[in-house]
Amino acid sequence: MGSNFLRDTVGRSWWVVLLFGIFSVLFGIMGVINPLAAGAGLTWAIGLLALAEGITGLIGAFGKNAGVNRGWMILYAVISIIFGVLALMNPLSMATSIAAVMGIWFVVSGVMRIIWAIRVRKEIDNEWMLILSGLLGIILGVMLVMAPLAGVFVGAIWIAVGALFYGALQIWAAFKMRKLSPSA
C-alpha cells in the first residue's frame, strides 16, 4: 500500500501545484511590468497580516497564559495594528518607509561590521573582506535612504523574477506529477 498509495496521492494533486505555478508566474509578470504596484501589493498583504496578528496578540494579551509579559504583548500588538492600518491605507508610502528604515539599518550594520573587523584584525585573516562588506552595506543603505522608492522598485523586480522562476518550476513539477496520476 505504501509507495503506490503515495504515488497515487501525489499524482492526483498535480493540479494544485499547477495552480500555484500559474499564480506565481502571473504575479511575476505583473511585478516585472509594474514593480511599484507589486511592491504596494506586497506591503498591503503584509499590512493585512500585521493587522490580524496585532488583533490576535491584543486578544491573547488578556488571556490567562499570554506566555510573555502582558505589557510587552500589548505594545507589540498596538504597533502591529498601527503598522497594519497604515499599510492598508497607503501601501506604497509604507513600502518606501520600510525601504528607508532598511537603509538606516544597512548603514548602522555596515559601520558595526567595519568597527568589528578593525578590532579583530589581529585574530582573523582577510579582515578587509569584512571592511568591504561594511562599506558596501553603508553604500546600499545610503542609496536606500536617499531613494527609498527606487529600493521598492528594485526589490519588487527581484521578487517578481523569483516568482517567475518559482512558478515555472512549479508548472514543470505539476506536469511531472501528473504522470503519476492513476488516470493518466
Description:
The chain has 184 residues and is mainly alpha-helical. The protein contains seven helices and no strands. Helix 2 (14-33) packs antiparallel against helix 7 (148-178), helix 3 crosses helix 7 and helix 5 runs antiparallel to helix 6 (127-146). It has a domain at 15-41 and 92-178.
Q: Could you write a compact summary of the structure shown?
A:
The chain has 184 residues and is mostly helical.
Itemize the secondary structure elements and their pairings.
Blueprint: H1 2-12, H2 14-33, H3 35-61, H4 70-89, H5 91-119, H6 127-146, H7 148-178
Helix pairs in contact: 2-3, 2-7, 3-4, 3-5, 3-7, 4-5, 5-6, 5-7, 6-7
Q: Which sequence of SSEs, written as H and E, runs from N to C?
A: HHHHHHH
SS summary, helix count? 7
Mean pLDDT: 88
CA(first)-CA(last) distance: 19 Å
| 3D shape | extended
User: Strand share of the residues?
Assistant: under 5%
Largest sheet, in brief, is:
none
Helix content: over 70%
What is the tally of beta strands? 0
Q: Which structural class is indicated by helix and strand composition? A: mainly alpha
Radius of gyration: 23 Å
Low-pLDDT segments: none
